[in-house]
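Pipeline run #58 for the internal structure catalog. This entry was flagged by the ingest filter as a single-chain record with no existing model, so it goes straight to prediction. Upstream metadata was stripped on purpose; only the residue string is passed forward. Reviewer on rotation: M.T. Logging verbosity set to normal.
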Amino acid sequence: MHGTRFTSLLLVLSLCLSPGARAQDAAKAEAKSRLTKVEAALDGWDIPAARRELQALEGLVPEDVEPLKYFQGRVAFEEGNYAEAVELLQAANIEDKPGSYLRLAKETRDIVKNHARAESEHFIFFYPKGKDEVLVPYALETLESIHRALYEDLGHKPPGGKIRVEVVNNARELSKVSTLTYQQIQTTGTIAICKFNKLMVTSPKAVARGYDWQDTLSHEYVHLVVSQMSHNTVPIWLHEGLAKFLESRWRGKPGLAMTPSTLALLGRRVKEDKLIPFEKMHPSIAMLPTAEDAATAFAEVYYAIDYVYSTLGNKALREIILGLRDGKQDRKSVEAATGMSFPEFEKNWLAHIKKQQFPKELLPREEVVLKENDKEKGEKKKGREISFGDFAEVTEVPARKFAHLGELMRERNRIKAAAEEYSKAHKLVGDKYESVSNKYALALLELRRLDEAEQVLRGSLRVHPGSPTTSVHLGRILLYRKDYPKAKQAYLEALAADPFDPEIHLALMRVHAALGESALFTRTKAASVVLTGLNPEDVEQVSREFMREDKELVQTGEMSAPAGKDAAPAAPAKDGGR
């Protein structure tokens, strides 16, 4: 809230608009009313209304009044006019300190001033120049899809102009353009934020093994819609539950975001009676002490919304949000929408959680690992390079020994023997570890045992959905078989987590060409040029050669220009070291 600024401006109004005459009293009352509405609109995430009230207020008070400059600066900042916001906030004598709107405006201005931009019907996408260009078409499609879905589900379209989406280079930049500290971002793995009337998302290039960046964009858009619909009255537990449950709507049904590893973690916390109370999630799940606590809280609130949706549908979700908008407290709004007391709701929600099919053992948890924290960042894994470190996550000693022996056999090019050792490891741990499954599948690929390799990879994806490594390896099999529709699906799933792997785009060029999708072929060709450094003609030839029947299923060389061509070499096609 801006109570101090509000009081200061009222004092200025009393001095500038001397009381006495009825007209002056009326003007003062109107100015006070307009000011109240400006502040309420800002707090309620209704920036068009804040701008309208501010313009009316500007005609009632002197233009050089500092508190007026402050609110002008606030509105300019929320509208994305950062240079103007800095000037106005400086004129308002705002202190330039961490967390102040002046510091936020300055940092954001400097970070995004050289960004490129792209637009769709409802969004403006700002991104760092360079390889982030490949995100553009997929990001805008994702955003437009979730825009349509939430209008259908919740009945809301953001008012005003196009919604700003800003990509930042890394976690440090994200901390500068938000109110989270770098330490909070590091601790909880926060990768994107919805605040200040926009979406802010970290580039996948900052993350060691990729992350679900399209789901993340969708997740943050849900936050925007919920904030606007409710006039910013939804508490964090409901906010995060709605965002997590609805984030998959851009690609299908709601409720597809829960991973087996998170479900396993939730099951353990339920068994240990160590759930996070709703009130401890305030003011942000990102501020919880550990990443595990944050993951547990996300799972809890996901199932709270899942329970409401599965029993009462979208109508109840809308009623909860609108009840909060109309002044109800969260418990009362839930009670009104569900027709049960809050203690009864909590009891049923907990019973709903306990009915889930928890994995029998705790699975390795998927974490967002920033490149600066990646223990393996010094390793350059190319082609068929051997990496014993891949099995460090395997806690079962016999399985790890078999996997190491398999890697040793593979190093000596004894692929059949390697497959036998990987098979022993896989039999002991099943689909628990991506590393074991993928190395085993790669050995099977080299032996042309494609059906077995596919079975191993699909088993791994059931436990680790969205893994770009596994999806790429599956894509190779499907492309080799000329099963283009399924290959397309596999590579797009890989792209949704790791959009900067050149293989994905080169493979999609083959797929789009085979399916006669000329527009999609053109855009994947453009992405391939950006990511490989090859000229367009050479990119087409490399794509045609990729995964041909007479080529190895495990790439051993570098993707580069055809012989005799003078072009920069591209990134290597990767195998188990992906």
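catalog note: The chain is about 60% helix and 5% strand.
catalog note: Strands lie at 116-119, 123-127, 163-168, 192-195, 198-202.
status: ready for reviewer M.T.
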